[in-house]
Amino acid sequence: MLELLQYEHFRKELVNAQCTKFIDEQQLLHWQHYSRKRTRLQQALAEQQQPQQQDLK
């Protein structure tokens, strides 16, 4: 996003409400996907560690 702000054309498009709404929605979708993916990864790691801990007992 910071890189795009370097371009005048992009900055001019930010005045357009449809453009800014699209960017806002895309950022929200990105973070929702990131959060879900991270949660699944953490759960998978926890599930992998549980059998290993039981084997040590």
UniProtKB/TrEMBL annotation:
GO terms for cellular component: mediator complex. GO terms for molecular function: transcription coregulator activity. Keywords: Activator, Nucleus, Transcription, Transcription regulation. It comes from the Eukaryota. One of its GO terms (biological process) is regulation of DNA-templated transcription. Transmembrane segments: none annotated. Pfam families: Med31 (PF05669). It is found in: Nucleus. Coiled coil: none annotated. Component of the Mediator complex. Belongs to the Mediator complex subunit 31 family. Component of the Mediator complex, a coactivator involved in the regulated transcription of nearly all RNA polymerase II-dependent genes. Mediator functions as a bridge to convey information from gene-specific regulatory proteins to the basal RNA polymerase II transcription machinery. Mediator is recruited to promoters by direct interactions with regulatory proteins and serves as a scaffold for the assembly of a functional preinitiation complex with RNA polymerase II and the general transcription factors. This is Mediator of RNA polymerase II transcription subunit 31.
